[in-house]
Description:
The chain contains three helices and 19 strands. The protein is mainly beta.
Amino acid sequence: MKSSIKFKAIGTQSVAPDYTSPILVRGSLLEPVKITPQYPEGPWGHSSPGCLAKSETPTWVISSIHTLEETGDGIDTVPYKGLHLTITNLANGYEASCMPNTGFSYTNSPQFTRLVCSGDEFQGEDRVGQYPISTSASFQDSTKTLTINQTWYCDDVDPAKPVQITASATASLPMSCTTRTLPETNQIQTLCTSSGPLSLTGTISSTTTLAPYVLTDPRPTRDGCTLTSLLNPRWTFSHFRIYNGSVPSPESIPPIGVDPQTPIIPQGVSFDIILAAEERGFQYPIEVYQGEEKEGGWHECVIGPDGENGVALWPYWCEFRWDGGTRELRIRARWECEELSSVEK
Length: 345
């Protein structure tokens, strides 16, 4: 027999009388548990004033440009070739640092091909959300030619109509090079730099209108402690043991961390248990031993050490009943979930 669950939530939103786009009302869950969702900030600069208008003429500032090459002697030192530059999108203020896809190239090849560029999206997927800004670039060292391709997002005009913009640009960077011999190793070192930041204007290759308000939607996640407990509470059992106490065994000895005075019946069962949530992190099942007998054939759980490794997926109190004839194990448990809110359990 399936039971029904009642959900109750509250939320508010202000809107202009003539607003015709879909309205998003975000709130907090009050029942069956109290949860205040944490929403991501979204991609960098998506709501900054002028984002969409400035994106009509995509422009980047290229700065901190330099390449460095050292010949190496093949014995004590190896050939080294490095590149670094910073790309700043003027529409949203997003800044990405770029370097060769291997980090450093230990070769005398005159070209750098694919560059790896990263910005604030590496500060955490949960903060950025489902739509991180992506940047790809390449650099030909022989011609000092830089090619940029970037996708970013704007919803400053109307959050209900977010826009995805993809644009690219190619230009030859004016750089000056100096060569010297390193006195310590007699290696030949060549350093190429630019005199200052450079402005690079590109062209839009595509624009796409996305679903309303998606830029600050949380990333999809697997069911964790709270959702599993509310919608489909179930446990995973393992290492089930029956012991009679006639032969000394680890199962008849109080587990580490349990008071030796805690009564553990020398005849009974023990097992490992963990909440059957999809998202378990690094948590493993916890040991449960048979304790004092209660009314109706129920036994108190003697719970083993939990390792104190964060939010538990184990009961902090339980009773169980084992029927050896039908081989049925029943459990009554209490546990806490707090992964969806830093305040409420």
